[in-house]
Amino acid sequence: MEINVKDLVQSFIDGDQEAFAQLIGRFKKRVYSVAFQMLGNHLDADDVTQEAFVRIYNRRDQLKNVDYFASFLMRIATNYAIDLIRWKQKGFVSIDADKDIPGSPKIELVDKADRPDQILENKELLDIIKQAIKRLPPRQRITVILHDLEGFSKKEVAGILQCPQATVRSNLHIARTKLRKWLQKDDKGR
Amino acid sequence: MFCRQVQSHLDDYILNQINKELFDQIDNHLKECLDCRKRLQTNKQLILELQSIKTPDPGDYYWQQIEESILAKTLGVNNEKAELPDRVKAEPISIIQRYLIPLAASFVLLFGAIMLFNSIQSQTQFSSQATNGSSPYILAEKSAELSEKSDSQIFTAIVAAAPGSLGRHLIFTNISGGSR
User: Fold this and answer.
1) How many domains does chain A contain in total?
2) Which residues, in sequence order, are bridge partners of residue A108?
3) Does A121 have pLDDT greater than 80?
4) Is A32 on the interface with B (CB under 8 A)?
5) Are residues A128 and A96 part of one domain?
6) Which of B76, B106, B126, B143 reaches 20 to 30 Å from B175, CA-CA?
7) Is ipTM > 0.85 here?
8) pLDDT tens digits, one per residue of A64-96
9) At B174, is the pLDDT very low, low, confident or very high (cuts 50, 70, 90)?
10) Do residues A12 and A20 make contact, with C-beta atoms less than 8 angstroms apart?
11) B180 pLDDT above the threshold of 90
């Protein structure tokens, strides 16, 4: 029988290593996915995922309420990812540093069209959207990624980013408006 | 409802994240407003495209590796707390290497030097007795007498007879039969 997350978190807080291993197993894909969408490459996503779990392990005594484990973990991951983005924007490392690394995973298109020309068109469109997302400021970018790409609710996003829901709503509205504007410009340019 | 109001709620309308009353109002407005319908299509396309972006799965091997790596990092912290670091464990060996071995070597050298010194002194003593008129027979007798003394007595004598020692004179006198 599968142990529920709350019990696992409580055991983890009490110092149970096995519970921590199980929590890693349950949350690693979600953390990696958010990190990958934020940073756009495997190496940074891997770095963020590992760091998020190591940090939550070291701060487990700060977890007063077992219900907040997921949002606490995602908050650590997104804050670290935002730090990495800002660090890279200052010019330390290229955001596409692993572009030429063989085997580096890329964002793939979910095929909606059967015809090769439609597939190609969709692929191009997704590349443009990815580039447009990267142009967003970090807070707006993470809001769009958490809500629109990863499917978190506005309440959950507010919990992760520690801001009111109204701010999440506002950031989403501004980010989508910018994306639409950029995509329309790009469409006219093509 | 005005177009501006409708457009501010269009994304929530698409995602069905608004109450039924507001949903119906927007629905009615869209039936009559071509601009808002166009806007609805644009917004819908963007949201669908955003939702279609998927993260590729790096594979089971990676998931296993990352889990092991995280556990190694976190459990490694605990192990450091529980056990002494290698540097500290190695310290007794370095103390032996640094202090005890040179000390032992110094002691052996000192002991050897003392033995050599005593041996030379004994020879000098016998030769001095010989030059003072003792016959070869008497010298041989003294030598035999000295060899009859037990090893422990000789050892004690050697150690106590180190240069500068107070007992040197007395012990040597005793061994050599008070001739000194």
Assistant:
1) 2
2) B54
3) no
4) yes
5) no
6) B106
7) no
8) 788 889 989 999 999 999 888 888 777 654 444
9) low
10) yes
11) no
Q: Flag whether B87 is in a domain.
A: no
Domain residues for A13?
1-105
Residues A146 and A179 in one domain: yes
Assess whether B34 and B104 both reside in one domain: no
Question: How far apart are the C-alpha atoms of B174 and B168, rounded to whole Å?
Answer: 10
Query: How far, in Å, CA of A168 to CA of A159, rounded?
Result: 10
3-state class (DSSP) for residue A108: strand
The total of structural domains in chain B comes to: 2
CA distance B113 to B159: 11
d(C-alpha B90, C-alpha A60), whole Å: 33
Asked if A93 and A2 sit in the same domain, the reply is yes
Q: For residue B54, what pLDDT band results from cuts at 50, 70 and 90?
A: confident
pLDDT, position A115:
56
* CATH code at position A111: 1.10.10.10
Q: By the CB < 8 Å criterion, does A12 face chain B?
A: no
- DSSP conformation class of A17: H
Report the pLDDT value the prediction gives residue A96, as an integer from 0 to 100: 44
C-alpha B40/C-alpha A20 separation (Å) is 45
Question: Cβ contacts (< 8 Å) between B62 and chain A: which residues?
Answer: 46
